[in-house]
Amino acid sequence: MNAVSLAELCVGDAEPATVADRLRSWGVEVLDIPAAAAEPCARAYLAYRRRRKAESGRDAPSLPLPDFFIAAHAQIMGWTLATADTGRYARFYMKMLEQGVYLAPSQFEAGFLSLAHSKADIEKTVAAAFAAFQEIKK
Questions:
Q1: Domains of the chain: which residue ranges?
Q2: pLDDT tens-digit profile of 24-63?
Q3: What is the value of pTM for the model shown?
């Protein structure tokens, strides 16, 4: 998890100063976003702003959205990002639901991990996701 995602969790927590330590106690590594991510983040966000204006006539916020920092961080680290595949998500969603894990029915809706989720909740979700991935890759 990087600092942007950590900040998003802190906003919704009653004790934001303790979020990072609680995550680390669960084995989650919190990473800083390297300065090298700034340039690809800015380049991608400028392209997005231009495309949004051209396609919809609407302006985007002048500051990059968090997802652009997260993607730029992944890019410079050489990590692979997932792409949108609505059909695959629909199959994944149903497999998760069959195992008692409710997710947003659309991959374009927000779903958040919060500190209200217990370690057992997270472990159940990870196990269910692993099983669901095994099923849908067939």
A1: 84-138
A2: 998 888 888 899 999 999 999 999 999 989 999 988 888 7
A3: 0.54
CA distance 120 to 79: 27
Q: What distance in Å separates the CA atoms of residue 110 and residue 41, rounded to the nearest whole number?
A: 21
Instruction: Quickly count: other Cβ atoms within 10 Å of residue 70's Cβ.
Output: 20
Name the CATH code of domain 84-138 (choices 3.30.450.20, 3.30.450.40, 3.40.1190.20, 3.90.1150.10).
Answer: 3.90.1150.10
Place of tokens 């196990």: 127
Angle at 107 between CA 103 and CA 109, to 5 degrees: 75
Identify the bridge partners of residue 31 per DSSP, sorted by sequence position.
2
- How far the first Cα of the chain sits from its last, in Å, is 29
State which amino acid sits at residue 70. I
| CB 68, CB 48: distance < 8 Å | yes
